[in-house]
Amino acid sequence: MRRIGDAAIEILADLGLRGLTHRAVDAAAGLPPGSTSNLARSRAALLELALARLTELEDEHFGELLTRPLPADRQEAMIELLAVSTCKMIGPDRRRSIARYELALEATRRPELRAVYDDIGRRYREPTVAMFAAAGTSDPARQGRQLVAFTEGLLFDAVVGAGGTPTLDDLRAAFTEYLSAVFRDASPT
């Protein structure tokens, strides 16, 4: 399943949704014809398989980051965590980011994929809200959602927009400016 999922992600990054076929995945994965369709009978099943594999990879990337306790200087720790993670998604994991955007757009047209995509999104938003709650900010739920949106905006602009590719220092500065405003009214913990 991993091999097929990885091949599907690569095809999504290189060719988009139109290029994602069972045959193309078989070829990219180096498998005999029909292997992918044995595992994912329909196009919807193939899309869900690709999303499931993408989620596994992102869990590996973000899992430890979102679950480890933050040090006393939460703002600085969050800035570094966000800057490094975003830099990785723009650079070494750029193709994975492109595949994720392909699937996100397709989820707007397929309710069954939307449900899966939204459930996955909650797994990343909830720890972000928890980090703000632990830091004592004024409205952790709103601020957590907004931080995810801000981060997605930076990522989208760098990966598919015309904004250029920010450096790690650029990202640190962006998150410093953003989080300084959020933490300005945080109660001491």
Compact overview of the structure:
The chain has 189 residues and is mostly helical. The protein has helices at 2-19, 22-29, 35-39, 43-67, 74-90, 94-107, 111-135, 140-159, 168-183.
Give an overview in words.
The longest helix has 25 residues, at 43-67. The protein is mainly alpha-helical and 189 residues long. The mean pLDDT is 89. 78% of the residues lie in helices and 0% in strands. The termini are far apart. α1 (2-19) packs across α2 (22-29), α1 packs across α6 and α4 (43-67) packs parallel to α7. The chain has a domain at 53-183: Tetracycline Repressor, domain 2, CATH 1.10.357. The protein contains nine helices and no strands.
The CATH topology of the domain at 53-183 turns out to be Tetracycline Repressor, domain 2
Helix share, percent = over 70%
Distance between the termini: 45 Å
The radius of gyration computed from the alpha-carbon positions, rounded to a whole number of angstroms, is 18 Å
Output the helix-strand order.
HHHHHHHHH
The total of helices stands at: 9
Sheet-strand content, in percent, reads: under 5%
Q: Name the shape in a single word.
A: elongated
What is the CATH architecture term of the domain at 53-183?
Answer: Orthogonal Bundle
Which class of the domain at 53-183 in CATH terms? Mainly Alpha
Which blocks of ≥5 consecutive residues have pLDDT under 50? none
Largest sheet: none
Q: Give the mean pLDDT.
A: 89
User: How many runs of DSSP E, i.e. beta strands?
Assistant: 0
Category from helices, strands and their pairing: mainly alpha
